[in-house]
């Protein structure tokens, strides 16, 4: 089943074309990576998918539904979760509270019930707490539940941000450079974690990442952006050998030398 279909999407900022006629399809259960040099338009592309920006041209379909120009909250409710290149945890809140924030869109309690803390509201709070604790246990952070998020080691902050996105119960998870700033041991643990949540939770994952070892190890397919345009797409080995990709990363003339 096709989870995401992007049709000739374009985004301009004044005279700059940040994303230029990009099309791609992501199938259920895939790990699909979007790579490219700095400034290639990758994060702008993610922002279009999640409603932070609205495309100037093109369409975005999620599970067959046109979500072009949606808002971030509606994208989350539909089942699109994401993390950010720069970690955006609530540092002054506990690990558990961060997960509860992520789960709030699934709360089904009318405002008045929540205000008066009726039995219905208390029942929903208990359910939310149980699910949050279960998720923390699953991702290996249960022992940290009462610590402030800002006090976690860097690798665990990254994992917590992913866990908060998982609390949304997404069908599509967008990870924006999750290995940024990690040491090799943390990156290896992240790789295992991503593969685990894909297989055990049945998630479809769209990944932006600069760590090529990680990308090549876990991706089913890869699309490459350069100056906002898609210059290649295929399986990891196909993309690795593509002359246009080599040129984009290493400069003109590198493709011929790599042949």
Fraction of residues in β-strands: 15-25%
Q: What can be said about the biggest beta sheet?
A: 6 strands, mixed
| Element-by-element helix/strand order | EEEHEEHEHHHHEHEHEEHHH
The CATH architecture can be given as 3-Layer(aba) Sandwich
InterPro entries: AAA+_ATPase (IPR003593), ABC_AA/LPS_Transport (IPR051120), ABC_transporter-like_ATP-bd (IPR003439), BCA_ABC_TP_C (IPR032823), P-loop_NTPase (IPR027417)
Protein name: ABC transporter ATP-binding protein
GO molecular function, one term: ATP binding
Keywords: ATP-binding, Nucleotide-binding, Transport
Structure characterization notes:
This protein has helices at 42-49, 72-78, 95-103, 111-116, 119-139, 154-166, 184-201, 212-218, 236-240, 243-250, 254-258; strands at residues 2-13, 16-27, 31-35, 57-62, 65-66, 80-82, 172-176, 204-208, 221-226, 229-234. With 259 residues, the protein is α/β, with parallel strands linked by helices. The protein has one domain (2-258): P-loop containing nucleotide triphosphate hydrolases (Rossmann fold, 3-Layer(aba) Sandwich). The strands form two sheets. A six-stranded mixed β-sheet has the order 6-7-8-3-9-10, with helices on both faces. A hairpin with a 2-residue loop joins strand 4 (57-62) and strand 5. Helix 3 crosses helix 5. The longest helix is centred in the middle third of the chain and has 21 residues, at 119-139. The two termini are 36 Å apart.
């Amino acid at each position: 089943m096709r989870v995401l279909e992007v049709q000739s999407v374009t985004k301009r900022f004044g005279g700059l074309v940040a994303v230029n006629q990009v099309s791609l399809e992501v199938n259920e259960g895939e790990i699909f990576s979007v790579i490219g040099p700095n400034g290639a338009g990758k994060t702008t592309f993610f922002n279009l998918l999640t409603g932070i920006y609205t495309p100037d041209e093109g369409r975005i379909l999620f599970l067959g539904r046109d979500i072009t120009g949606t808002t971030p909250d509606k994208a989350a409710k539909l089942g699109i979760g994401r993390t950010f290149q720069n970690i955006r945890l609530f540092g002054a809140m506990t690990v558990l509270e961060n997960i509860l924030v992520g789960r709030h869109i699934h709360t089904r309690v009318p405002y008045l019930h929540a205000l008066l803390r009726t039995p219905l509201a208390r029942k929903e709070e208990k359910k939310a707490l149980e699910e949050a604790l279960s998720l923390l246990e699953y991702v290996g952070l249960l022992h940290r539940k009462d610590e402030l998020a800002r006090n976690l080691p860097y690798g665990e902050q990254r994992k917590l941000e992913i866990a908060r996105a998982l609390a949304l119960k997404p069908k599509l998870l967008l990870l924006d450079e999750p290995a940024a700033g990690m040491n090799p041991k943390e990156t290896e643990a992240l790789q295992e974690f991503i593969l685990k949540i894909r297989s055990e939770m049945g998630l479809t994952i769209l990944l932006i990442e600069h760590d090529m070892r990680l990308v090549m190890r876990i991706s089913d397919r890869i699309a490459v952006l350069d100056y906002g345009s898609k210059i290649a797409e295929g399986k990891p080995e196909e993309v690795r050998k593509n002359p246009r990709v080599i040129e984009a990363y290493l400069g003109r003339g590198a493709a011929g030398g790599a042949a």
